Recover the amino acids of this structure.
């Protein structure tokens, strides 16, 4: 426990809102994040792709793709956890989760679904068009 990393938040309120949206709309990604990824971060096992590294200061930024429904990924993009590891201070800083627009919107008000996929309020027609197009391609 002495060598364990501490998990901190860049903006805890905003991050928690996005976590709750993931819990509500994508339970698989939420469970994987809470019960697999966070404990491994505390143990010093960092998953995902290192997007930038500063070896002098011991700072590494990661992007970790969370498991999600294939249709959701095609319509809204992959759910990606962005975090930074400060190795010298033994801190894992949780930065954000993308796509921010749909996750923030999902927390603010109830999102509708169309054929089992979340549809944003701001551009519902565009999302429905994408869903219909992808369904036509699959047939």
């Amino acid at each position: 426990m002495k060598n364990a990393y501490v998990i901190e938040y860049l903006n805890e309120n905003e991050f928690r809102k996005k976590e709750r949206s993931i819990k509500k709309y994508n339970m698989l990604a939420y469970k994987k994040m809470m019960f697999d990824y966070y404990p491994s971060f505390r143990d010093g096992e960092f998953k995902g792709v290192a997007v930038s590294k500063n070896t002098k200061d011991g700072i590494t930024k990661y992007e970790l793709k969370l498991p999600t429904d294939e249709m959701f990924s095609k319509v809204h993009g992959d759910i990606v956890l962005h975090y930074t590891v400060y190795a010298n201070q033994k801190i894992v800083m949780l930065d954000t989760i993308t796509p921010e627009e749909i996750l923030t919107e999902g927390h603010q008000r109830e999102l509708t679904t169309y054929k089992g996929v979340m549809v944003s309020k701001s551009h519902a027609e565009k999302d429905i068009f994408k869903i219909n197009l992808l369904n036509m391609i699959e047939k």
The mean pLDDT is 82. The radius of gyration is 17 Å. The domain at 6-109 is CATH 3.30.2310 (YaeB-like fold). DSSP finds five helices and seven strands in the chain.
